[in-house]
Write a structure and sequence with these properties.
about 900 residues, nine-stranded mixed sheet, eight-stranded mixed sheet, globular
Length: about 900
């Protein structure tokens, strides 16, 4: 029986007559060096009322002495020692459990640690919920880099109480012993013990734990730090030992048997799913590094258990893992070694594939178990299509590398006419692949590596100009090639690809000193000091203008439209563009300065005109005779300025900085009366307002493209285009969480008719999964959003200001607002009730969205009246001449001067 929620427990400090609140069992074997770290992580817990039981599995090193020192240092430590080594972790854990003198117990390995609040937080949760045990997030800690990685974070995404494993069988993936706090009474009442005759005893223990528990809790925070070293010696890292494989298969079988013994036969498939997704992958991922004999013996051990797993369970795992399982079952070891190389690293395509109808199969024959259709490799646009390049021979020739490369085109992606090259960094070496008699191509490649990176072979379509590249696969056992100048060419990763590393030569002392001094002189504070001095002693140049769009991320938007109008009129304005490092899309022939650099500081100080869409650096005062045109970058329902989350808080410094920044503006471009009503007040702006429409929207009014979007993004002519443009969430920037539509479901339902152009906000970070690239075209950095709007047939957004611009097209709009209440009440805040004014349906699920898209003409027609009102509210001033009218007002003196004979 589990303890009822809220039942109090006695707590006294150790050294008294009562029992501690929690026992942490630290198991150890010949780990004297790391044992103190593990024990200290327990003794330093915010829960002081606990005991540590060191369960020593008959160590032969200094572990007894270290344990004695720990006992002397803290009376909360006890020490148990077995007379003979058990050979596993089960026996010492059982010893510790038997010795526990508290109501709750945790287990810790001597090479790992507990975060400071692990015990207290888990104890609080088990008391609050009355659960049999509480499970928390485990995090790998890679000691060589300090990087941490959470284990299956989706399992621990939310705090919850689970009414038995039937409620969420995915939790079989969490078969760890160490990330849980257990009720000791519960474990003893159910006679739960760890097997002592096998490794991976925690899998069997966890299966029985789940089978008998009727109530357990899950928490989202990290409660266990699993240390990983490059040269680990733990059982879980001894995967090259064939006995390790045998023990894991035995543990899997026993786990299944435990479930059946408790009448939970229906849970066995979920347990087997865990074996396929996690346990088997431990061996498959590094399989390309093994020899054929090892792989054959491994397959022979695993095969009998795989034969017991129902086909429907195998069908649920990801395609390439399923292919590997079927190759094991068929005893196709050579093919298995090739297929396993596609699980990690470059995730290389196969050498050959077969298409039958709308299905794609790995290899040369059609077989259900070899179906890789869900990867969509045969449906990708050419620029992301997959070719396979295998290095069959490689050698050094002085400073050059010579190699023979076989290229496979399993999906027939290559066009009739192409050119090919080897790319390393910015260098391209032309190559001339020749058709081979066995299909594919063979290339003789010679190159002199000078920069570090992954060499890639690329093919460019002569017809379209699109290019696709892929890494070079090599034998994982390849010996590194050392070249002069500290250059090494070697294999990288288990699914090995070629990599070039360059050892940096130590620069002479004087250049290093010079660079260090320049770095110190170039701090932001020093640049600002120099700028303030310049604006005091140098007058601005009246005809020099500094233009900036989106903090230098591109030469686009309203500043670009105004710039083009200046060029069309040939006004005597010398324009310099501020751009962030690595940004392109600059106007042809334009002068550029790197944003934040010394030339930028000089130009900012000397320019008589500033034009931008977001804001020049906040701390930089405007020179006295410089005029500043603020075009802003959008309008809409979201709160802005002092109403926005980052400024509405009661912190004076950011508010004071923004107030000073706004005071620099000499004129503000306003797209509409509605924009003026909210924006001017919310930013405390008091200067002239140009209500001429939005210069960057002139192109939308005229329907003017700058690029062929369909050709650039490889969109088939028979597909409709849905522009998906969500805005970011202030409390989750760079998280990817603004992409709330289920793109997987959309692809399944709509891929035959639609293509999605995904335009995420520039502060967002989201990578489209590779298998969805056939349906989704990422366009977060596409230079001109107007082109995307004009190329689309409909818009999907949430709260983005793009809705106001898109209304100019008259095309359908849909709004996915599943977090509406959170966004308006706790997140950004809004000025308008979107559901009541939206010019299209507001949906909360992807299923609703799909239904609307399938009946889009009728849905759009039903919102005609609202659409007209929305357009009148936001677009009444848009007549296609905003840039011309702004130039005439703000640059009027230059126009007059040009008219004077």
């Amino acid at each position: 029986m589990s303890r009822p929620a809220g039942m109090p427990i006695a707590r006294v400090r150790l050294g008294g007559d009562g029992m501690p609140a929690c026992t942490v069992v630290v198991i150890a074997y010949n780990d004297a060096d790391r044992l103190p770290r593990a024990v200290r992580s327990v003794l330093d817990q915010s829960l002081g009322d606990l005991e540590v039981v060191i369960a020593d599995d008959a160590s032969t090193d200094a572990t007894p002495r270290v344990a004695e020192e720990l006992i002397r240092a803290d009376p909360r430590v006890r020490y148990l020692r077995r007379a003979a080594n058990s050979g596993g972790c089960g026996a010492p854990r059982n010893d510790g459990l038997d010795a526990a003198e508290s109501p709750y117990v945790m287990f810790l390995d001597s090479d790992d640690e507990l975060p400071r609040h692990a015990c207290k937080s888990l104890l609080t949760e088990i008391e609050r919920t009355g659960a049999d045990f509480v499970s928390g997030q485990i995090s790998r800690l890679y000691e060589w880099s300090g990087r941490t990685q959470r284990y299956y974070p989706a399992l621990f995404a939310r705090r919850r109480v689970v009414a038995g494993i039937h409620e969420d069988p995915r939790l079989f993936l969490d078969s760890f012993t160490t990330n849980k706090l257990y009720s000791v009474r519960f474990l003893r009442e159910h006679l739960l013990r760890f097997p002592e005759d096998i490794h991976y005893e925690d899998h069997v223990f966890a299966s029985e734990l789940y089978a008998v528990s009727r109530r357990f809790a899950v928490v989202p925070w990290v409660v266990y730090l699993w240390h990983r070293t490059r040269a680990g010696s733990s059982i879980s890292l001894s995967i090259g030992d064939m006995d390790n494989v045998r023990h894991r298969v035995v543990a899997a079988r026993r786990s299944d048997a435990v479930l059946r013994a408790h009448g939970a036969d229906d849970l066995v498939p979920a347990r087997q799913d865990r074996f396929l997704r996690q346990d088997l992958r431990v061996y498959l991922n590094p399989l390309p590094t093994r020899d054929r004999v090892w792989a054959k013996e491994f397959a022979a051990i695993v095969r009998p258990y795989l034969e017991e797993i129902p086909a429907e369970v195998l069908d649920r795992i990801e395609p390439m893992a399923r292919v590997c399982c079927h190759l094991i079952l068929a005893d196709r070891i050579d093919d298995l070694l090739v297929a396993a190389g596609s699980l990690t690293g470059p995730q290389a395509p196969p050498r050959a594939a077969v298409r039958q109808g709308d299905r794609t199969y790995w290899g040369t024959t059609v077989s259900p178990g070899m179906d890789i259709t869900p990867l969509r490799l045969a449906e990708l646009p050419f620029s992301v299509s997959r070719l396979r390049h295998e290095v069959t021979e490689i050698s050094a020739d002085g400073q050059r590398v010579r190699m023979t490369v076989r290229t496979f085109d399993p999906f027939g992606a290559l066009p009739l006419e192409w050119t090919a090259f080897l790319r390393l960094g910015r260098e391209r070496v032309p190559i001339h692949p020749q058709a081979s008699g066995e299909g594919g191509y063979v290339s003789e490649v010679t190159f002199a590596p000078r920069t570090a990176g992954d060499p890639r072979i690329g093919f460019t379509s002569v017809a379209t100009g699109h290019t696709t590249t892929d890494r070079l696969l090599v034998n994982p056992a390849m010996k590194p090639i050392e070249l002069p100048g500290g250059v090494t060419v070697s294999a990288d990763g288990p699914a090995a690809h070629l990599v070039v590393r360059v050892r940096r030569a130590r620069r002479p002392l004087l250049p290093r000193i010079r660079r260090a001094l320049l770095r110190r002189a170039g701090t932001p504070a020093n640049r600002l000091r120099v700028y303030r001095t310049l604006i005091r002693v140098l007058p601005p140049r009246r005809n020099l203008a500094l233009f900036e769009s989106d903090v230098g991320k591109g030469c686009t938007g309203s500043p670009r439209a105004i710039y083009e109008e200046l060029r069309r009129r040939k006004l005597p304005v010398d324009v310099v563009w501020s751009v962030a490092p690595g940004r392109g899309d600059a106007p042809e022939g334009a002068r550029l300065v790197r944003r934040g650099g010394w030339r930028y500081v000089w130009t900012l100080a000397r320019a008589g005109v500033w034009v931008d869409s977001h804001g020049f650096p906040l701390d930089y005062p405007k020179p006295r005779r410089t005029r500043y045109l603020q075009t802003w970058h959008g309008q809409g329902i979201k709160s802005i300025g002092f109403d926005a989350p980052d400024l509405r808080a009661d912190f004076d410094r950011p508010r004071r900085r923004w107030r000073s920044a706004v005071a620099r503006w000499d004129a503000l471009v306003s797209p509409s009366a509605e924009f003026t009503r909210h924006f001017v007040r919310a930013n405390g702006y008091t200067g002239p307002v140009y209500r001429y429409g939005t210069p960057r929207c002139d192109a939308l009014v005229r329907g003017t493209f700058t690029t062929d979007v369909r050709a650039a993004l490889e969109i088939p002519p028979d597909r409709n285009v849905l522009l998906y443009a969500p805005t970011y969430r202030d409390q989750a920037k760079h998280s990817g969480r603004s992409v709330r539509a289920d793109l997987e479901l959309m692809a399944e339902e709509l891929a035959g008719e639609w293509v999605v152009i995904l335009r995420t906000h520039q502060v967002e970070c989201y990578a489209v999964p590779p298998h969805l690239r056939y349906f989704v075209r990422p366009a977060g950095t596409y230079p001109e959003v107007n082109d995307l709007m004009l190329a689309s047939d409909a818009l999907l957004t949430d709260y983005s200001s793009v809705m106001c611009d898109y209304a100019l097209t008259g095309r359908p709009m849909l709004f996915l607002i599943d977090d509406w209440d959170d966004y308006r009440l706790r997140e950004r805040g809004v000025y308008h009730d979107l559901p009541s004014i939206a010019p299209g349906p507001c949906v909360t699920t992807t299923e609703e969205l799909v239904a609307c898209l399938r009946d889009l003409p009728a849905v759009h027609d039903s919102y005609a009246e609202r659409y007209a009102a929305f357009r009148e509210m936001w677009c009444a001033e848009e007549r296609g001449d905003a840039a011309a009218r702004v130039v005439e007002d703000f640059f009027g003196d230059f126009i007059k001067a040009r008219r004077v004979p």
